[in-house]
Specification:
globular; 593 residues; mainly alpha; 3 domains; 0% strand
Length: 593
């Protein structure tokens, strides 16, 4: 019996590790990004083909590197936001490449190390200040690592301009559909809110109602993010085109609909199909596929909703919302949601210093192992140590797995095709399409594509060294450097951020609970959206904190239970607001995480 306990403990540990690996390696469910894959093929292959035909190989390779980084940041966001993101990638990468190239041409390794540390500090300081700056900070460091690790001849200004041109090519390919489908992405995001509301109404009275309501909250958050530039213009009372105004009006009604649906969830009474289908009818009325609103009214009276409890305040509110949609179509749209809480200055500084230290250790390690031009180690550190992109441990595992698979795939392709120029360009195109898929589905898949592309590009620059084993060892070493910094030097980074996000969410919930009885309808909408958005952010931060450890029994607080209780308070306050009464249903809001 003495050996049974260790065996049982070993089995539990193995089960925990297996469960963590299953969570870590799961893919994101989404449709196949055919358009993004085709953009990647064109953006990567076109510069290389032009370089081959004209004899300007070096500028072509750097243009392909710029296209590679542009593909890595390409997304399905609105075209204006997509353009801002890709332009930031191009400018930051070109600036970093210029800095690294000038440092390398000085011949002073101390200057190279100083440039890497300085750009890591700058990149780290700005990385946690928003999505655009986060990408710009990482690309600034990536550009410096490549510029300081790849020696090229010719004018100093040529590689940065070539890299910028490759990124701009991706920008043009990615944003050109704006010419014929200008508001398609925004319209899809707002329409998704109505679909999520319909699914939530269908789930009311079942165990799935809370999960469905959370999905509707996420859809509303996404719609607000997508429409953020237009919301800002409307808040400043600037003129907008009719299509944009129609979208803003649909979003405003979607926010009101979200409150009504939350009240239905709190009431908990199952609803007939005619009620569950009303959000879809509203979407068809407000956002028809043809782009022109229809003229029929939705549900003008409660008699249009048979077999329902007409004493339900939520039903009264839903009928009123449907009946007044036409009358309010020309009203001013003013929606505002408070900005998300961000880490404080201490967190920014600590992350920047740790990132700079990791880059310096990686650079010194590369010098000791490979001599000058060891860019892979610091570049991998820059890719992995991005806590705002997801759990660091998961990114490290994905990076290592993707590198191993990419090295194996590159070796197999090299044996099958040889090193002929057109075969190499074809290989880049295939790996580029794979990377575009991985960007949207799985980081390890994206790393596999990136690894193969970098091998080919380095080979086109004339570096024919056998680097297969070296790349794997460098990636593992870079991951180890980052994990030591993240778990030994700053072990509570994810935990403290999850606790801070949860406290901020509870504060938003208490504000909504305390101010809703005396607030106007517009103010209640803003307070409610701020509370639900903060709760969604807290749930995301809590999930990341749990994902940073293999063992689920590390003694972390039960943030999920706190968040669920706070969501129920929000639902109760919303229902009370619809009845015009106060009450004590929301008086027991959780006060801390």
């Amino acid at each position: 019996m003495a050996s049974a306990a260790p065996t049982s403990q070993s089995r539990r540990s193995l089960a925990a590790v297996t469960s963590w690996l299953r969570r870590t390696l799961r893919t994101v469910r989404a449709g196949f990004p055919l358009a993004a894959a085709l953009r990647s093929v064109v953006a990567l292959a076109l510069p290389l083909l032009l370089g081959l035909w004209t004899g300007h190989t070096v500028p072509a390779v750097f243009a392909a590197i710029g296209a590679l980084w542009g593909v890595g940041q390409d997304s399905s966001s609105p075209y204006r936001l997509r353009m801002q993101r890709l332009v930031a990638v191009g400018l930051a990468s070109a600036l970093g490449l210029l800095i690294g190239e000038l440092a390398l041409r000085s011949g002073d390794m101390a200057a190279v190390a100083g440039c890497l540390v300085a750009t890591a500090l700058v990149g780290g300081l700005i990385s946690l200040r928003g999505p655009i700056l986060s990408v710009a900070g990482m690309q600034l460091l990536l550009g410096t690592t490549v510029g300081s690790g790849i020696a090229v001849s010719g004018p100093w200004w040529q590689p940065p301009l070539a890299l910028l041109s490759g990124t701009l090519l991706v920008t043009v390919l990615s944003t050109s559909p704006w010419l014929w489908r200008r508001h398609r992405i925004e319209s899809d995001a707002v329409r998704a809110v109505y679909r999520a509301a319909a699914r939530t109404l269908a789930a009311v009275g079942t165990p799935h109602a809370e999960a469905a309501r959370r999905s509707m909250t996420l859809a509303l958050n996404d719609a607000h993010d997508v429409m953020a530039p237009d919301l800002a213009k409307a808040a400043r009372h600037q003129s907008v085109d009719p299509d944009t105004r129609r979208l803003l009006e649909a979003l405003r009604l979607a926010v009101r609909l979200g409150g009504v649906v939350s009240a239905f969830v709190w009431e908990g009474r199952p609803l007939p199909h005619c009620v569950a289908g009303l959000p879809l009818a509203m979407a068809e009325r407000l956002l028809p596929p043809g782009g022109t609103a229809t003229e029929q009214r939705l549900v003008p009276t409660e008699n249009g909703v048979p077999d329902c409890d007409l004493r339900s305040p939520a039903l009264h509110a839903l009928v009123e919302l449907c009946g007044t949609a036409d009358a309010e179509a020309g009203s001013d749209v003013v929606l505002s949601v408070p900005a998300r809480p961000r880490p404080g200055r201490t967190v920014h500084l600590r992350y920047a210093v740790l990132l700079a230290a990791c880059v310096l250790v990686a650079y010194v390690s590369a010098l000791l192992l490979h001599g000058p031009r060891g860019y892979w180690l610091p570049m991998t550190v820059a890719f992995i140590y991005k806590p705002d992109f997801g759990p660091v441990l998961r990114r490290a595992v994905h990076r290592c797995v993707g590198t191993v698979v990419g090295v194996a795939a590159t070796g197999a392709v090299a044996l099958l095709t040889g090193n002929t120029p057109y075969a190499l360009i074809g290989t880049v195109a295939v790996f580029g399409a794979l990377m575009a898929v991985g960007v949207r589905h799985h980081y390890a898949v994206a790393t596999t594509g990136l690894t193969g592309i970098v091998f080919v590009l380095v080979d086109l620059l004339g570096d024919h060294r056998p680097l297969y084993g070296t790349r794997i060892l460098d990636t593992i070493l870079a991951a180890a450097i980052v994990l030591v910094a993240n778990f030994l030097v700053w072990p509570d980074s994810a935990d403290s951020w999850a606790a801070a996000q949860t406290d901020a969410a509870l504060l938003a919930v208490r504000r909504y609970r305390d101010l809703a009885p005396s607030a106007t309808a517009s103010q209640r909408q803003t307070l409610r959206r701020a509370a639900y958005r903060s709760l969604a952010d807290a749930r995301r931060a809590a999930a990341q904190a749990h994902a940073e450890t293999v063992s689920p029994k590390r003694g972390l607080p039960d943030w999920e239970a706190t968040i669920i209780a706070a969501e129920q308070v929000c639902d109760a306050v919303t229902a009370q607001a619809l009845t015009g009464t106060g009450g004590s249903a929301g008086d027991h809001a959780p006060d801390s995480a």
